[in-house]
Design the sequence.
């Protein structure tokens, strides 16, 4: 257990270091943040010459969560809207809030168990065919061994979620997802997605890849990215053990409002799922600095997994 | 006269000591007692991610749970050896209770009873009726209330219901023990839960009482003991090691827990189309 704590502490430090590097200008706040509800947009939405919202920018999230991912708990479905109200974003169910009675930080074991529970307490779960229910449960319980993105493999889509950088051009968009060098190291990914009206290659002609074949179009002010042609070597998310087949079809929606970017993905997989599943929306904040840059991502070299004694991701 | 007064005093004292003393407590006590009960079970957790930049409050992290155990259940008035596998959740409120009864000298009988929201059904196999041609789901709408009630009667259900009921929840001291009384709502409106806490604020007994005598079959009692973290994946959520459910004083189920997973495992309760289409019945 001592080894595990050391590994977790080191990994957490690496993760926070990553977040710190990415946060070039965190949103100003008076005191610590006590809510994690999705941020409200401020400012105007810039548009490109063709009239579409301009998604270009460094989307750092709030910069104070694991790997800069905004609203970590909200991402898993529970938004703490105030110090007395929390809500499941999928079902709308009110969740009881417990004020913290002291300022003592949790020890590693407490923090690890709390994180594992918090990240699984939301109600928005894909509905697999019954014959796969035990497999999903097994994957989640044993993710530190079974997650196919372990050992510096790509996270894939939709797990990549909101890219850290978007460049928008008249005929394509470019997405960049820096790799994670901390616990559960994953590889840097990029996607070059045409918006020129081309159609998909027939699925049977595609070799499955980690990010699939993506094409995009605008529906009003929403960029819709349609992807298929995946391999089966990724999961939907870091938490849940949600595997998929090569017949997965993903539709992502990106909507910029002011300084926020809201993302959802709908997953269809007739081999595994009983019905399409839509993620809980995630919201990232634009890095407001005009000179914001993406630093070089950390070299991906998995050093933690061999020492971890717990089985599930947290 | 003095002898008469002494006798009257002794009688009064005896009555006072023998009758249950119920002392309602105030709002501050209610908050304190509910928090203590929630903390004893390990229901509230918070994230420290973000370090000094965040100070998020804790939230109730209890959603899905999976319990495996063995013991006995009532079968036509006889206690029969029974293996239990119970999957349940609070968001949505749902449960799948799978039990295998093995009567002395008889063949094993396997039953799966499921409930979610306003639907109850029986499954011929886990997840029956969802994928075409795989198993049969038989609507059992009259059982909705009783199946839902058993979920709310678990210690976590009582605490959730007590918080949800707000000012209607009453905390009291009764015969030296703290009690929490909370009305249920929705499908279970008209039913009140009363929980008795031990000195560690763990819930040891829950009584369900229906206002309406027509629902007397929902007057259930549950006893919980042997609390520990019975999960393979440890979470610090405390679960009972033994559960005894009674109906009208008769033991309906007596379960000794083998494992009780509390890490919100992947458990889902989709309602089969034929169950959704079944006519709603006035449930018991």
Sequence:
């Amino acid at each position: 257990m001592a080894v595990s704590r050391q590994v977790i502490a080191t990994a957490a430090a690496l993760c926070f270091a990553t977040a710190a590097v990415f946060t070039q200008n965190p949103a100003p706040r008076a005191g610590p943040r006590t809510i994690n509800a999705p941020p409200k947009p401020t400012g105007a939405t810039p548009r490109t010459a063709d009239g579409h919202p301009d998604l270009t920018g460094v989307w750092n999230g709030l910069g104070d969560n694991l790997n800069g991912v905004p609203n970590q708990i909200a991402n898993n479905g529970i938004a703490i809207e105030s110090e007395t109200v929390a809500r499941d974003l999928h079902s709308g169910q009110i969740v009881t809030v417990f004020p913290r009675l002291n300022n003592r930080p949790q020890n590693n074991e407490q923090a690890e168990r709390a994180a594992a529970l918090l990240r699984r307490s939301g109600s928005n779960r894909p509905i697999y065919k019954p014959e796969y229910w035990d497999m999903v449960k097994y994957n989640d319980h044993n993710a530190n061994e079974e997650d196919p993105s372990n050992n510096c493999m790509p996270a894939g889509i939709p797990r990549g979620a909101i890219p850290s950088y978007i460049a928008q051009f008249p005929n394509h968009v470019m997405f960049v997802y820096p790799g994670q060098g901390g616990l559960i190291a994953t590889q840097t990914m990029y996607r070059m997605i045409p918006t020129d009206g081309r159609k998909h290659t027939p699925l049977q002609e595609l070799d499955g890849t980690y990010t699939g074949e993506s094409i995009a179009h605008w529906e009003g002010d929403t960029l819709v990215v349609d992807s298929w042609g995946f391999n089966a070597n990724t999961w939907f998310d870091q938490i849940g053990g949600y595997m998929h087949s090569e017949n997965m079809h993903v539709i992502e929606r990106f909507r910029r409002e002011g300084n926020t970017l809201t993302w959802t993905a709908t997953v269809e997989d007739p081999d595994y799922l009983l019905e399409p599943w839509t993620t809980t929306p995630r919201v990232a904040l634009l890095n407001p600095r005009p000179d914001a840059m993406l630093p070089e991502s950390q070299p991906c070299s998995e050093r933690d997994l061999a020492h971890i004694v717990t089985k599930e991701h947290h | 006269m003095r002898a008469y007064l002494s006798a009257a005093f002794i009688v009064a004292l005896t009555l006072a000591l023998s009758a249950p003393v119920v002392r309602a407590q105030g709002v501050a006590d209610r908050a304190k007692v509910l928090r203590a009960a929630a903390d004893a079970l390990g229901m509230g957790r918070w994230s420290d991610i973000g370090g000094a930049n965040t100070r998020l409050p804790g939230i109730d992290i209890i959603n899905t749970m999976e319990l495996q155990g063995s013991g006995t259940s009532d079968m036509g008035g006889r206690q029969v050896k029974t293996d239990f596998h119970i999957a349940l959740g609070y968001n949505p409120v749902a449960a799948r209770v799978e039990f295998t009864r093995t009567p002395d000298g008889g063949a094993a009988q396997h039953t799966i009873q499921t409930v979610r929201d306003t639907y109850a059904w029986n499954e011929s196999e886990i997840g029956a009726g969802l994928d075409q041609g795989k198993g049969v789901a038989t609507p059992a709408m009259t059982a909705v209330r009783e199946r839902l009630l058993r979920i709310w009667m678990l210690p976590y259900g009582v605490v959730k219901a007590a918080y949800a009921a707000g000012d209607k929840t009453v905390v009291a001291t009764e015969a030296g023990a703290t009690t929490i009384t909370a009305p249920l709502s929705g499908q279970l409106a008209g039913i009140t839960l009363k929980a008795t806490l031990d000195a560690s604020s763990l819930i040891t007994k829950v009584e369900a009482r229906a206002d309406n005598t027509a629902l007397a079959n929902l007057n259930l009692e549950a006893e919980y003991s042997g609390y520990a973290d019975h999960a393979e994946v440890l979470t610090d959520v405390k679960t009972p090691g033994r559960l005894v459910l009674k109906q009208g004083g008769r033991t309906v189920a007596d379960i000794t827990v083998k494992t009780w997973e509390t890490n919100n495992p992947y458990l889902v309760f989709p309602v089969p189309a034929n169950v959704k289409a079944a006519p709603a019945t006035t449930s018991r």
Q: What stands out?
A: The mean pLDDT of chain A is 83.
